[in-house]
């Protein structure tokens, strides 16, 4: 039987469901739709080009937290604050205590302080030669700099001018740039390089895999073009939130990876349905309308599920994480527009070029059908074994330890990381990352005893105050009293300098210890370690809320598709299992350091909590993506036959090959980021690839049939069977 690929004129307005009517409309107006799509693409490309340079790297801040209020008080009352960057100064000969070196050091400090955008600069020489700002061998000293403003101002305007001007050094001094702002400034171009490198691998491999699956060059090319369309639309839509908030540069990687993956997934599903409709004898117009009616509905529910999972990130008051919600929702919108509006018009115009050259009868009982039947004969055995394997893979998750990100997210050759490595190895303490204690009001007594108590804490190298400097419970110097007072002798603050070991180990625990010391007056505890502690605490404290919202929203979306209360519950449980495997993988690889040599990163023994939360929302949404694809086929068969087992077997036979192919391509898209230079990007790529592969194989092929068989008629409660007429 020859495939019917003719496009007959449609003279009457077809009836049927709204999506079917939309399909016929897109067929009739295909030229106008394609012209509109080209205009939209051109405008979106211009907007996207302007969006990319405006992406930045948001700070790890917890608005309204104690550390945030402490920083504001320090600036308001004392005109100072936490340093934003460090210059590591090395004597080319002798030590930093030599008179000539000191003279040049003081001059360099003053020169930095006079640069545009710099509010303060201080150094070993201008602060009375504290031991915490001098390396143990005397070759290095520190200059600390405060640059007020948001991340875009500091990293985008001040540092690009300041760093090249200062790191030229002087006759006696070599100068390196470091500190948190410089570390994250270097992260931006590296993450963009990671994208370019990954995409150079992804596009040809995706085309090859699509060709192997579709066996037609055009059928392989169209989904990739749809993915590019989704990426461009997604980046263009980011111009809207960029008008009122910052978007992290890491959102670019997510937009491009998800845009290509979702664009391919959605288009594959529509093309597959178009092929099925054609195989059953429909002409091209009716085949397009049927694809929009059935596959289009599934794609819309899938997009709503993914977008809903990412929208949960709006519940977190952190610009860094909200960036991914904006990016993910934007790229989903682009993918839906490409698959449901543009692709049907393309198929109406060149649909014959995506059809197989040989008509192969649709197989009702192939490999996947046989697998489903075998699993459903012994659901407890197969389901139990699969669950045990997945739980074993997820078990490293039990050892998860949350920490804070530092310069080791960068590759060893990054200049700011090399600076930080020297500071870690050569300095006894971390002066630039001091914990600041600010009384809420003017003090009314001697602060010496409080400073002594703080100096005795494990992990504290020195406490500096208006009453002097203290270490191990003893007064070790006068310090710089003028630095800690403004106006009244009782209006003062303290600086708790952590040891290098404490900051490299668990700075959050040190902050907790400082806050546990009973102060003689009400205080606010701030500084970089306190900011990290408050950020981590805020993220972790909101994990239950994020999880509850994610489960609730996706439950409602799946209920809207299936009208069942049981199926969404099972889908949520299965997705949590795949999330466990993903977290087990990132703990085993990135926290514990397995495969560190292969992937080329430096493990720190902890994970920053923001990245796992991001991965949870993205992976959960993508897992539900495949759940929607499979359940739509199973539900369609159940509505037709009323037999759950037959519906599962037939649905798996028709849906699993597509899901496996789409999952493999999406996993490849994410896995390409394992070659990244920035560890955050590597973690996202590896974790997402693992989650997608597990979900598209073991869970869909084994656990879904097992649970569907065990639940039986309860699967569809309270909806029951709704029979549709065969077309």
UniProtKB/TrEMBL annotation:
InterPro entries: MMPL_dom, Mycobact_MmpL. The keyword Cell membrane applies. Keywords: Cell membrane, Membrane, Transmembrane, Transmembrane helix. The chain crosses the membrane at residues 195-213, 220-238, 250-271, 299-318, 324-350, 380-400, 543-561, 573-591, 611-634, 655-674, 680-703. Coiled coil: none annotated. Belongs to the resistance-nodulation-cell division (RND) (TC 2.A.6) family. MmpL subfamily. This is RND superfamily putative drug exporter. It comes from Nonomuraea jabiensis. The lineage of its organism: Bacteria, Bacillati, Actinomycetota, Actinomycetes, Streptosporangiales.
């Amino acid at each position: 039987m020859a495939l019917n690929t003719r496009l007959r004129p449609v003279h009457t307005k077809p009836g049927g469901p709204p999506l079917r009517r939309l399909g016929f409309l897109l067929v009739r107006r295909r030229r106008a739709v394609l012209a509109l799509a080209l205009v939209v693409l051109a405008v979106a490309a211009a907007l996207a080009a302007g969006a990319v340079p405006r992406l930045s790297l948001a700070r790890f801040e917890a608005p309204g937290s104690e550390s945030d209020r402490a920083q504001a008080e320090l600036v308001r009352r004392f005109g100072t604050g936490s340093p934003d960057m460090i210059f590591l100064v090395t004597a080319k000969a002798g030590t930093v205590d030599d008179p000539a070196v000191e003279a040049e050091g003081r001059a360099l400090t003053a020169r930095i302080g006079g640069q545009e955008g710099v509010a303060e600069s201080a150094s070993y020489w201008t602060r009375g030669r504290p031991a915490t700002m001098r390396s143990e061998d005397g070759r290095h000293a520190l200059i600390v700099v405060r640059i007020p403003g948001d991340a875009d101002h500091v990293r985008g305007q001040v540092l690009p001018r300041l760093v090249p001007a200062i790191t030229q050094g002087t006759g006696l001094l070599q100068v390196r740039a470091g500190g948190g702002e410089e570390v994250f400034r270097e992260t931006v171009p590296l993450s963009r390089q990671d994208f370019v490198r990954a995409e150079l691998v992804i596009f040809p491999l995706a085309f090859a895999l699509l060709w192997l699956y579709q066996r037609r060059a055009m059928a392989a090319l169209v989904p990739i073009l749809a993915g590019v369309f989704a990426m461009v639309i997604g980046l263009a839509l980011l111009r809207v939130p960029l008008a009122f908030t910052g978007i992290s540069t890491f959102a670019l990687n997510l937009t491009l990876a998800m845009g290509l993956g979702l664009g391919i997934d959605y288009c594959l599903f529509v093309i597959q349905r178009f092929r099925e409709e054609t195989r059953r004898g429909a002409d091209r117009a009716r085949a397009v309308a049927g694809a929009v009616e059935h596959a289009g509905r599934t794609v819309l529910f899938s997009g709503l599920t993914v977008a809903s999972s990412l929208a949960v990130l709006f519940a977190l008051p952190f610009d860094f994480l909200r960036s991914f919600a904006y990016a993910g929702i934007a790229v989903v919108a682009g993918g839906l527009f490409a698959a449901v509006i543009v692709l049907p018009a393309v198929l109406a115009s060149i649909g014959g070029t995506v059809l197989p050259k040989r008509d192969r009868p649709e197989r009702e009982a192939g490999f996947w059908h046989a697998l489903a039947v075998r699993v459903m004969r012994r659901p407890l055995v197969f389901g139990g074994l699969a669950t045990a394997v997945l739980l074993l893979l997820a078990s490293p998750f039990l050892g998860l330890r949350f920490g804070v990100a530092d310069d080791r997210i960068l590759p060893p050759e990054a200049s700011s990381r090399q600076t930080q490595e020297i500071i870690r190895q050569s300095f006894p303490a971390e002066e630039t990352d001091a914990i600041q204690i600010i009384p809420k009001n003017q003090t009314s007594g001697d602060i010496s005893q409080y400073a002594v108590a703080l100096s005795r804490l494990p992990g504290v190298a020195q406490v500096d105050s208006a009453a002097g400097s203290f270490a191990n419970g003893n007064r070790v110097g006068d310090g710089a009293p003028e630095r800690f007072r403004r106006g009244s002798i009782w209006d003062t603050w303290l600086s708790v300098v952590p040891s290098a070991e404490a900051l490299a180990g668990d700075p959050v625990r040190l902050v907790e210890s400082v806050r546990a010391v009973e102060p003689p007056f009400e205080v606010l505890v701030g500084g970089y370690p306190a900011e990290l502690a408050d950020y981590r605490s805020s993220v972790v404290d909101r994990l239950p809320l994020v999880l509850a919202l994610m489960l609730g929203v996706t439950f409602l979306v799946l209920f809207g598709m299936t009208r069942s209360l049981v199926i969404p519950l099972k889908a949520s449980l299965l997705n949590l299992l795949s999330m466990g495997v993903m977290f087990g993988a990132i703990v085993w690889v990135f926290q514990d350091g397995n495969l560190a040599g292969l992937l080329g990163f430096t493990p720190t023994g902890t994970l920053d909590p923001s990245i796992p939360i991001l991965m949870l929302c993205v992976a959960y949404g993508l897992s539900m993506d495949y759940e929607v694809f499979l359940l739509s086929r199973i539900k369609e068969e159940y509505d037709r036959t009323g037999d759950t087992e037959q519906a599962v077997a037939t649905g798996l036979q028709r849906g699993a090959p597509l899901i496996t192919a789409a999952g493999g391509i999406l996993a490849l898209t994410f896995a390409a980021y394992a070659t990244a230079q920035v560890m955050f990007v590597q973690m996202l790529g590896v974790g997402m690839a693992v989650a997608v592969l597990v979900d598209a194989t073991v869970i869909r092929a084994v656990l879904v049939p097992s649970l569907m068989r065990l639940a039986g008629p309860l699967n569809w409660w309270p909806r029951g069977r709704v029979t549709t007429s065969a077309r």
